[in-house]
């Protein structure tokens, strides 16, 4: 009875809080309701929390306050939308970022808590998933079905009482193909002698591309599932030259250092099933030992949180940070997974990837090693390894401190934090594929024009940017500007020392100390100019060529569109000495604001409107659904990630939490 009263009181306060937010009550009033004990986790009958309502109001200060007071960043409403999705649908970048960053922070904090308090008592937030979706052992003892679905798509299905789930589906072919292409263009090992490790065979799509594209001399495949191993046998994988199949989980071979006995690999890929983010993170920790060297590359199936733009964004950032922590730099590119494929591809199976773009990661040992290798011979590799460790640790700490400042972890696992993260920019770089036509420019710049102009600018930029040459030239300038004045000083001094007093320490009025030093400074300036002027002139020529090119395009545009139409102004900043990226500014009509968060905007491309079409509108109305008692279904800012292929992911019955120690 007492319990019922307590719950009823919480429900009343929770509802009061949401109503106050929706009624746009002033922040001090809302703070009072929170201080009176209103639960921030409370969700009304539509699944809306106070944070959803604050995002709907586009009230940045309130979003900040609620998050600071412990609002749950990843609570989803009955339509599957988080508060971040609502901010996104309203094109509100500031609110979206606040919520997204709270997610990153919360995940990092959970990891800190679980690593730093290992000796403390364990609090179980929820039981860990022991079904075939969340436990590899349960998965291995379940049956798999290899078949072709109604769309003619090859699929490997796990059949359960809750319906079929695709362990691997043919539509992912494009992702696998692009990954292997990236491996090929990045590894520098054009063909022979490549050593490859792939974890998880599935349909063998990636393995087939690896064979065809890289023709590896050694191709190790780790696979534990008996049905998959049987399928591999029927396809003849056991007899392929250079192929070695390790039957079991990757954990068994890593623990026994068995994979290490093969020596380093040039290419490593992992894509497993029924594992969660912690398993992937553990695998990340082994990657630096497994990579053969600086030319070797690593990638993984980046499906974390892919049922929702916000969660995907959070986990993409997290995995980049975790990889940086072990000394791996990641470059991301986008693979369009919408073209030519519709909703039918899922058939009766669970939709585990709901976004239009896949963010493809390519990792390598951190770039600083390249530079160190230039100075330190291979024999002194231990030194570089130590420096690498220090650098990556420093990088991770600095990145982490960007997200978490003044961490004050209290007993309820809530932390008082400040957040900072730089705004992403789209650079034109030789290393990156050309950016897609930004949504804001559609209607002002034609796709063909864009496709022709961007490579032309990138090419021009690369002609006027030679980092190695510039580095050596500036090094020579530095040495010469010190060495030449130092070498000339005695000669200048003696030439000016008409009385021949010599350069002794007894001061004579007639000694030309000051004149000689002034002349040496003059020599220093002269030598510096000798090196800097040609470099500056070269850069200026590059810039003026870029200016001339964009001017010509503007004239072309004017001719074709006529004087009454809006003509975007193109401005190109060529690469400077220190920054290898060029930057292009294209103007919009004065009435149109640039946005990276238009529901269909390109930047950043993995962000897109929520899956729910109603939320894709600029206005997200409060929905009045049927009545009923709300269920507080989330007990703390717990980690969101489980395998997306698991049923009812994110907020549904199938959602699972890991144990954390607090
Ligand atoms: C999504 S599929 C891989 C698909 C593959 N990339 C392709 O291109 O077809 C996942 C595979 O990982 C395997 N797997 C699951 N847990 C594993 C583990 N701990 N170690 C190695 N493989 C695992 C599964 O049996 C399954 O064959």
UniProtKB/TrEMBL annotation:
> Residue limits of the RMT2 domain?
130-372
Asked if the record carries the keyword Membrane, the reply is yes
A Gene Ontology BP annotation from the UniProt entry: methylation
- Asked if the keyword Lipid metabolism belongs to this entry, the reply reads no
Repeat (ANK) positions are 46-78
Return the GO cellular component terms, semicolon-separated: cytoplasm; nucleus
One Pfam family of this protein, by short name?
Ank_2
> What would be an example GO MF term here?
protein arginine N5-methyltransferase activity
> Matching Gene3D superfamilies, A to Z?
Ankyrin repeat-containing domain (1.25.40.20), Vaccinia Virus protein VP39 (3.40.50.150)
Q: Which InterPro entries match?
A: Ankyrin_rpt, Ankyrin_rpt-contain_sf, RMT2/GAMT_Mtase, RMT2_dom, SAM-dependent_MTases_sf
Q: Which SMART domains match?
A: ANK
Which keywords annotate this record? ANK repeat, Membrane, Methyltransferase, S-adenosyl-L-methionine, Transferase, Transmembrane, Transmembrane helix
Q: Which domain of life is it from?
A: Eukaryota
Q: Give the transmembrane region(s).
A: 472-496, 516-538
User: Which PANTHER family is this protein grouped with?
Assistant: GUANIDINOACETATE N-METHYLTRANSFERASE
Listed name of the protein: RMT2 domain-containing protein
Species per Swiss-Prot/TrEMBL record: Dentipellis fragilis
